[in-house]
Design goal:
The protein contains 16 helices and 14 strands. By secondary structure, it is of the alpha/beta class. It has two domains: 148 residues, 3-Layer(aba) Sandwich (Rossmann fold), CATH 3.40.50; 206 residues, 3-Layer(aba) Sandwich (Rossmann fold). The strands form four sheets. A six-stranded mixed beta sheet has the order 3-4-14-9-10-13, sandwiched between helices. Helix 5 runs parallel beside helix 7 and helix 13 crosses helix 14. The structure holds pyridoxal-5'-phosphate. Pyridoxal-5'-phosphate binds next to helix 10 and helix 14.
Length: 402
């Protein structure tokens, strides 16, 4: 789904001020974003755009979502001040604890929002893509809660690698379908899920897992994760005597947890840093292109073919990045830094040893950058979005460290 012409269904206007303002009506963040989908999908994206706008402006929808986030997901997540780690690194490290949410990561914020929206739209079925299985499990969780049918597409290779998550999704009542095309991983699962959506759009909502894809997804998913940044801004003001952290850092796969925490601080003087795996550095390589419905940065070979990302953490090995991050990079509001797998393994152990927290390997990327940038960060206050817990990664680390 990469060769279609841009769809200018609505005129671009009405941009809000601010560094992370709403996109234009056509879904643009600067030159990035848009709705590059086959004609058959345009009405579905437009219907979703209208439904989201109306729901997001409706106080009763907001109240219902907040109630779910509070009483089901466990929000607000706390901020932990890491005294041991701070002493070791020479800067003050604060963790926003998204690992403490139900299902163990930030992903629940987005799937509860989308499932509630799907219900409001009269849809009875969710379809989702998943790579490592985390978004599939979160979607299956929301589907169980809302008594909706759920089909999760997963690359054949990933199904083999992530059998525990496949079993979890089945326990939760979902069907897992193999995406057998291409490299049989995440990008192929996205293609299959989109194909399914086109064919069954009357009854089905496509629950996309990050700030990617055609408009309105990058914007809508950011808005569902904005709660991370809104909470953190208030919590930091309390902890830092009315001040802000100097630096806000988050790992970036598609970019949803980073977009969530950045959105709280974009209009403060905090520096924003997104950390990518060195083997999947979509911004680092900065090749603009179109993948999965939007114009952004992605990893391509010289022929324009999308490259496979390589990372120790399956949750970050997506070859592209959400369009708003491409815009934040292009305008210089945020910077994006790569770290290697070896640095991530070190950081994973460091947090366990100093603070008694076993982090997800994804979030360990953000800590790995703090370790790398120690000199630059001396004496500063750094807020790290701890996107998830590491229980899922312990077996893999046992092999790595054997
Ligand atoms: C899925 C996942 C990520 C990557 O997704 P983003 O959209 O980049 O946030 C990061 N951390 C954890 C724990 C995840 O499960």
């Amino acid at each position: 789904m990469s060769a279609e012409a841009p769809n200018a269904a609505t005129p671009d206007s009405g941009v809000q001020p601010g560094f992370m303002a709403d996109p234009t009506a056509g879904g643009r963040f600067g030159e990035f974003g848009g709705m590059y989908v086959p004609e058959t999908l345009v009405p579905a994206c437009q219907e979703l755009d209208r439904a989201f706008r109306s729901a997001w402006a409706d106080p009763s929808f907001r109240a219902e979502l907040t109630d779910l986030l509070t009483h089901y997901a466990g929000r607000p997540s706390p901020i932990t001040r890491c005294d041991n780690l701070s002493q070791e690194l020479g800067c003050t490290v604060l963790l926003k604890r998204e690992d403490l949410n139900h299902t163990g990561s930030h992903k629940i914020n987005n799937v509860l929002g989308q499932a509630l929206l799907a219900k409001r739209m009269g849809k009875t079925r969710l379809v989702a893509e998943t790579g490592a299985g985390q978004h599939g499990v979160a979607t299956a969780t929301a589907a169980a809660l809302f008594d909706m049918e759920c089909i999760v597409y997963m690359g054949t290779v990933d199904i083999r690698r992530q059998e525990l998550n496949v079993f979890r999704m089945k326990l939760l009542g979902s069907e897992v379908r193999a995406a057998e095309s291409g490299s049989q991983t995440l990008k192929d699962a996205v293609n299959e899920a989109m194909r399914h959506w086109v064919a069954a759009v009357e009854s089905t909502h496509y629950c996309l897992g990050s700030v990617m894809g055609p408009h309105p997804y990058p914007w809508m998913v950011r808005e569902f994760h904005r709660v991370i940044g809104d909470e953190a801004l208030q919590q930091c003001a309390g902890l830092l005597d009315g001040g802000n952290p100097d630096v806000v850092v988050a790992c970036v796969g598609g970019g949803s947890n980073a977009a969530g925490i950045f959105s709280g601080f974009a209009d403060t003087d905090a520096e924003l840093v997104g950390v990518e795996p060195a083997g999947g550095a979509a911004v680092g390589r900065a090749v603009p292109g179109i993948v999965h419905g939007s114009h952004s940065y992605l990893m391509q070979d010289e022929w324009g073919q999308v490259l496979e990302a390589q990372s120790i953490s399956a949750g970050l090995d997506y070859p592209g990045i959400g369009p708003e991050h491409a815009h934040l990079a292009a305008t210089g509001r945020a910077r994006y830094e790569p770290v290697t797998d070896a640095q991530v393994v070190e950081a994973f152990q460091l947090l366990a040893r100093t603070e008694g927290i076993i982090t997800a390997l994804e979030s360990a990327h953000a800590l790995a950058w703090i370790v790398q940038a120690q000199d630059e960060l001396e004496g500063k206050t750094v807020l790290l979005n701890l996107s998830g817990r590491g229980d899922k990664d312990v077996a893999q680390m046992m092999d790595v460290l054997a």
